[in-house]
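Below is just one:
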Amino acid sequence: MNKGNGGSRPELAVNWKTIRICLFLFILSAGFILAWRYAVYVRNTAAEEGNCKSYTSIEIRPGDSLWSIAAEYMTEDYDSVQDYVQEIKIWNGLETDEIHAGRFLIVPYHFSQ
């Protein structure tokens, strides 16, 4: 019989450091598993559609405009040249259609696997 607690069960010592480490490892593992599942889902979805989107950097040549670049790089995945030009502007932080020779643009494009 335990004399210090009136006959009840002895108290268990709680090691909070171990609990925190186990909880951290559990959350980290769950995060990795979710990220892996998402990557597999994205890869499978792209493979099912057979169409992937990517980006490339191009140098602006003298005489280029956003519209001439759109005519050269746009694929049938866009509804209109205007939509494609708008996406180029968003990716490059452009507020106007003004571009300058010698600078670079990020240009989206689609390709089949």
In short: The longest strand covers residues 51-59. The CA atoms of residues 25 and 31 lie 10 Å apart.
